Each structure stands twice: as structure tokens, then as C-alpha cells.
Amino acid sequence: MKEISMQKKNNECVVLRLCFPLMGGYEAELLEKEITMLFSQGVKDLSIDLSLLEGLNGYGILLLLKTHEITQTVECSFRILNPSPMIRDTLRKFKSGATLPIQYVKGIYKEAG
Question: Which residue from 18, 75, 79, 99 has the fewest beta carbons nearer than 10 Å?
């Protein structure tokens, strides 16, 4: 399984789905590289789907905050999709939950068939 899957609605609107249970330093580095590439391609709307993520550490939180700050400077929409209650609580403990835009969306991925 790919660690990060991507769904493009068009060239400017992308949803990244994290396909690993925990986001530590290695996973945050993978995600950061993917995000950097997308910004260089001119993406204007970025969503990161956390529905499969069960936990994250400080590296993951810092990356989400950094991404949020960058998107504001490059005029890109950014949101976090479908975090579990545990992830929401972790973000809240680091006082980042109020800062990060969170949405709950069902059915954003088409079933392969």
C-alpha cells in the first residue's frame, strides 16, 4: 500500500490521504516532500485526510501547523479532513486544534472497481 495517496479534483485542488497509522518523523518528512511538490505545481486547495491516522507526535503536529502557515502566505486553501477523536484531542493538547481548519467529509474517495 502506498503511504500517501492522492486524489486530484483538478490541477489546483488535491486531497492527500495518509495511509499509515502513526505519523512520526519519517512519515512527516514524506508528507512534507509531497506538500512541497504540490505547492511548486501551483496547487491552490489542499486537504489532508487523517481518517486512517491513529496517532501523531510532535513532528506531525509541527508539520500540520507549518503547512497551515505556508498555505496562508501562498493564498492556498487548507483543511484537515476526518481526524479521529484521539487525533483531535492530541491537536487540542498542543493548542493547535483551534488554529487548524478541520472538516468531516464522508465519501471523498471513489471505490476502486
Answer: 75
| Domain 4-103: which CATH number of 3.30.70.270, 3.40.630.10, 3.30.750.24, 3.40.50.1000 | 3.30.750.24
| Helix, strand, coil fractions of the chain, as percent rounded to 5 | 35, 25, 40
Residue that has been written with the C-alpha cell 514524506 in this structure: 30
Contacts of 55 (CB under 8 A, 6+ apart): 21, 22, 23, 86, 87, 90
Structural domain boundaries in the chain: 4-103
Average pLDDT for runs of 10 along the chain of length 113: 80 90 92 93 93 92 90 90 90 73 76 38
The alpha helices in 50-108, defined as continuous H runs, are 58-73, 85-93
